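Worked example (supplementary).
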Amino acid sequence: MEKDLVVLLKEKRVFKPSKELIENSNVKKWMNKQGIKTYNELLEKAKDIEWFWEEAAKETIEWKKPFDKVLEWENHYANWFTKAQYNIVFDALDKHKDKDKIAFIWEGEPEGEIEKISYKKLYKEVNKLANAMKTMGVKKGDRVGIYLPMIPALPISMLACAKLGAIHSIVFSGFSANAFRERVNDETAKWVVTCDGFYRRGKIIPLKKAADEALLETPSVEKCIVFKRTGEQVEWNEKRDLWWHEITEKESDECETEILDSNDTLFILYTSGTTGKPKGIIHDHGGYAVGTAITLKWVFDLKENDVWWCAADIGWITGHSYIVYAPLILGVTSVMYEGAPNFPEADRWWEIIDRHKISVLYTSPTAIRMFMHFGEEWIEKHDLSSLRLLGSVGEPINPEAWMWYYKYIGKENCQIMDTWWQTETGNHCITPLPITDLKPGSATKPFPGIQADVFNREGKPIVDAGGELVLLKPWPGMLKGIYKNPDKYQKTYWEMYPEVYLAGDVARVDSDGYFWVQGRDSDVLKVSGHRIGNSEIESALVSHPLVAEAAAIGKPHEIKGESITAFVILKKGTEISEELRKELREHVGKEIGKLARPDEILFVEALPKTRSGKIMRRVIKAKVLGKDTGNISTLSNPEAVEELLKAK
Ligand code: PRX
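After joint prediction of all chains, the assembly is encoded as:
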């Protein structure tokens, strides 16, 4: 694999889009209308961001009342489309209310369970739930915690909240009870939505049980709405719990959509950062609607007859933006799948693509590498000729996985849109369009209206060398701060360089202006595309009574991108044992979620630290990977570095 990679990097192949793809693309048609001839001219012209984003809004959404100014920029907060009256639900739902067109084709994990939900039906279901929520007192600005798997109840809950002007905050259903509790408490939600359970790898995951555990210590929560998915027996709290089907049964299927300011909050989504506590990223209605809809329309080129499958989980930003809001705004048909990719067998995805004649597929490098590992024979059983475009997101895609995706899934007929973006950016930022020449492993160039660069430590742009990825100008989908933590917002994104947004990624721009994102800086891990803070894992470990100190690092992993290694110092007198190792792993699983369990736990007597007592993860990682540790003489205990290799 290493050898292939080197060959591919040297080869510098460029994959040009076909003339047909270019000429029929949404972006090209728009360029023709504007008299813009080339891709470069488009990028140049869109440097006038106010002009560009106003045009993008015209292409995608309709204001209830038009805006005063395209942009107001103050103290690193952007107010896009000021004073416009809006609610994303007008575009995502209400405007489609009479359509019989299918909004979601949903597949449950148990085979044969398929549900097709038309726009009309979706509209009615959302209204019923919104009315029930209204009866319970949910109103504009209230936070609602949602803990649901990949079932239609999830987008329905999101839209019902948005309809009332309430703020949804979704916690990934793979996260633990503790993670859910922490988020609910941070946002002081009075209402939560969950379900009895869901299917994963043939088993029932009892989600209500986890929610019950979380809600033991959430003083703000008054009511818990429970959707019946599996029909399993669940514990019931008479004072708190309400069955979804009972509270919606008698409600009307019409519900007025709250008219909001374009800049009002749509949702909070927690993500990992440099500290042990996840940060609540805030997104608004208007700017977010424009940013997500125009990127989906142009990058994935969706048209009336496309069947779109963004195979992410709605619990992450990819699902918020590109399973729920943008596809609904564009009125396309989306596929949603509840379960595991290899259930009952390794060809479940290819079966789904074949069955629903999916035309555009969007997934992650981890998934692609996993399918490579399963082998091509699983793909060959199915007809994938409906596919016309492919996408990748979440982590850097290695050229070898890119080539495999191109050859075996796309049959050398589909361009691959490698989209770089973040929870914070709301929408794609660095990404090809169907008119862009591709280089395997590069996310190519910034989307029109986005300006990016790579800076060295001194804040100067550098070419062909690794540096910090920065965004130079505001964009409509950008975050509107961190919930209840304005200081952290300023420190995390705006302190290192004045007036540019720090992404926290290391990247390189080549001499053609193509971006090569190499990965996160040292404080955040990417495991199977999931973003986990090193310090979250460390805090989880030290919350165990037998652990004194811990350091978590990422190691390159062939399928997952990164795997987690944790170095642990036990409290004095604690005996090392295999049981304890297992117990600590499960403890992290319980604190955060299974995906954060370390692959490897190693016990040591000491960890390298600075004189001020900060554990030097960078040095630990370099030592473990056999790289240069740099000058360690200033550490308070340089001898601890060698000791790492003797860890048990
Ligand atoms: O490190 C980058 C990586 O994922 C991070 C953002 O993670 P999250 O907020 O969970 O959002 C993931 C889905 C948008 C980025 O800082 N990342 C995302 N897309 C790419 C990527 N790294 C390289 N190439 C990408 N296409």
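Two points are worth noting when inspecting this output. The first strand starts at residue 71 and ends at 74. The chain is about 30% helix and 20% strand.
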